[in-house]
Each structure stands twice: as C-alpha cells, then as structure tokens.
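User:
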Amino acid sequence: MALIRLGFGRQHLYLLRRRSFLLSKLIAVVFAVLLFCEFLIYYLVIFRCDWPEVKTPAHNSGQETLKAMFLADTHLLGEIRGHWLDKLRREWQMERAFQTALWLLQPEVVFILGDIFDEGKWSSPQAWADDVERFQKIFRHPRHVLLKVVAGNHDIGFHYHFVMVNSVALEGDGCNLCSEAEAEIIEISHKLNCSREQEHHSSRCTDEQPLPASAPVLLQHFPLYRRSDANCSGDDAAPLEERDIPFKERYDALSREASQKLLWWLRPRLVLSGHTHSACEVLHGAGTMEISVPSFSWRNRNNPSFIMGMLTPTEYALAKCYLPYENTVLATYCVAVGFLAVLMLAHFKLLASPLLFGWNLLRKLKTM
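Assistant: Predicted structure:
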C-alpha cells in the first residue's frame, strides 16, 4: 500500500511539473511575441531609416542644417465613431512609432500636416478636450523638439480652413477667415518679395523688416490642385483602381485658383501636403515640387510612413521612413497562435512532439 501511495505521489508530482513546464513555455512565447510586435519591431524597422544628405554648394558650406520630420493624417478616433479596440490598437501603433522615431532619429522639429483628429468638427467641448489630452500623450516630445501642427478638414471644419505654416487659410469665397487669410498671405508675399529685392533697394520696401532671402517651404493639409493621382506611383501611392478617379476641387484638393495664388504669391521651393492618405510627387508650373505625405496610421493604410527632411536656407533633401506593416504584425500573431496550439496538442499527446511531427512531415513529402 505504501509503494502504491509513493508511486501515485511521484506520478502526481510529475504531472504538476509537466503542467508547470507547459505554462512556463506558454508564458515565455506570449511574452516574446508581445515584446516583438508591440515594441522591438518599431526599433528594428525605423533603425534602418537614415537622414538624407543635402548637397550644399561650397560657398554655402557653413549653412546650418535643420532636421525635420513630416507626418500627416493621424486621425485620432473620437467618442462618436471610435470603437475602443480600434482606438487602442491604432493609437498604440502611432505612439510607439512616434516615440521610437524621436529616440532613434533625434529630429529638431516635427510637422503634422493636418487631420490630427477624426471627429474634431463634431466634437463637444469635453470630447475635444479629451481628444487633445490623448494627442498630447501620444505625441509627447522633449522640450528641445519643436512640434508644429497644421489644421485639416476633420479638425476645425471643412472648406473654410486651409491652414499652413504661417496660419494661411484660403479659398476665396468671402468668408471672414478667408478674407483675413488672404490679407495675411499678401502681406507675407510682400515681405518675401522685399527679401528677394534687397539688392535692388526697392522703394516699396523701405519700411519693411527684411526676411531671409530664401524661398519658403509651404506646408499645408490639402494638396495643391491636380486632376487625380493618375501619375502617382510607388508602394504607398493610391491603389491602382483609385488613381484615375478625378479630384474634386475644394474637396480632394485646393481649387485651381487658390493653388495658383499660393504658387504665385509665395513662390515656394517645396510643398508638403497631406489629406489623400497616399504618397505622390507632383511637379507644378515653375518647377515647384509637391510631396503628398501618406497617413501615419494603420487605420488608413497598411504601410504608413513619414518624411525625413534636411533643410538649409537654400537647399533641401528628403527621405521616406516606413513604419512596420500592419499585416506583418498580424501574421506574426497568427504564427504564434498556431505554435501555441501545437504545444498544447503535443502536451496532451493529441499530437506528436513538434520536432517529430515536422520530421515525419518532411519524410512524407520526400516520398511523394
């Protein structure tokens, strides 16, 4: 009887050890997968991004270079249309991507080109305050990093607000804000023209405080007028079936008239815009390049990205930095779930050990 009890005790202890070992393996796998998918993958992917080099002429070699990040269309969900799981998943993705980029790339300034919030134009004051608090948490940054935000149509209404770096809003339909914006942009244009004419000592500029003689970089949410995305290409351009769809003026892009005014008045050397959620490069009239910055959120595309820019007063260089693909993370989780299922089946002897199962499978494949 004592031998039977001793044997039963040993068997019970053996089963407990096996279960503890199984539980340890399950916890280790789950922890490793979570660590990789929610933290490490952002470092591994963004670590491959490098700042571009500015080709500065020899006589301007002493110019200071500014490191700038440009991202767009974060679309933080609100209380109306936002499911809690969707909000949690997408906002965690953007937070980890942004914080990792700040730590690895060390930019001096970050520009977000509009549509920070998805429901800004419908939000109540309390909901708006909550959204702003979440935004400040996700895009927190050190004091030495400057963060500038351009308003978009989902932030503070549609049509009346095309806000740029210098708080420019333009659509020319007589609205109060549009009238004020047009007056401001004309004033800015006048100052820029005076800075370009410093050598000619124009009488119109005697009372003006001159700006640096440098063509501006124009940042805005809506792209300048273009017919469609038909000429856009690349992995993060609009899907093929959407590229030939005509753009609506004042909806998908600025009107032709507003775009011509901006290009004529400001004469920018570069334009960066958002809104379309897809990448595109467009060469406008006098050789001005416009870059459409893709969305930063998995909610809008599987392969989000941002632009890295090195800028001097006269030159610039741009590079794109991709974030982890959402389908890569989902596939990793699916593989992990399958592996855990195999471990469980093998533990309960419903399946041979994974190594033996794989070996037998290979043998069968060779004999086929």
